[in-house]
Amino acid sequence: MDKLNPFTVFSEIKMIEVSGQLLRVGIRRGKSSSPPLVVFNGIGANLELLEPFVKALNRIEVLAFDVPGIGGSPAPALPYRYPRLVQLTDQLLAELGYNGQVDALGLSWGGMLAQQYAYANPRRCRRLILAATSSGSIMLPGRLSTASRLISPRRYEDAAYLKRGAPQIHGGLLRRRTDLLDPHIGRVRPPRGLGYVYQLAALWGWTSLPWLHRLRQPTLVMAGTDDPTVPLANAEMLAHLIPHARLFTIDDGHLFLIMRANEVAPVIMRFLAEPLAQDRKLLVRRVRTRLRRLARGLRRMRRQRGSANRQGRFS
Question: Which partner from 31, 156, 197, 312 sits 20 to 30 angstroms from 110, CA to CA?
């Protein structure tokens, strides 16, 4: 357990080195038969900020990590792009002994990383959940004043500044009640060094539009109806372009996954528990096979009865 946070909902938080990069990893052990859920967090956000959501996901095993330069993960010497983070994620999973399929969830900036992960791992990534996110640099943007606040990590360093800007950045319930942020402010760990700048650089020029139609995972796209940072139209576009996607909306803003965790977690758990299309096809084949066997057995019984009746007439 993390010495800096002894009351975390994560079963364990530890440092793992993969490919020369130290990553601070949180694991919440689960009891579900579903694959583990890998959660990619938003820009500048350390894994503790996910705690209300992780707590609401009953029984599901959850893995999250601070990307390089964020939270407890030291910043790398050079900037990185999303494919590098996909590589680190796969190496981290292998280091932790997760060798099978996983589900992926991405929030905001992490939603774009989740898209990249699903695209790079069509077989390993079983299901995809995209929350308050977009297709990247080619998107339907929010207001310029909102974007200008996102360029700086100051909101993670100054609680008063965070609360003042919350209505403009996050919208939803925080337009009227910024006090709802109070329980979360104590979980904030400011970005380290150039970490925040590197996250911005990873996004620069990146877009998933050319290959969204090639994603094969069942996908749940989630969005708040009052999101100044990523307007609802972006979620509608993702749901339209991803072949096996559905759209879920909630009357809130950019942070609905955290602020309304107890309401959205059951939606996600139902989605993760649904049988996959190939599972349904396999079930249909099994039922058909059993019906054919039953039909053959009934035909044999009829033939045997007919044979017995004929023998009775001739005896």
Answer: 31
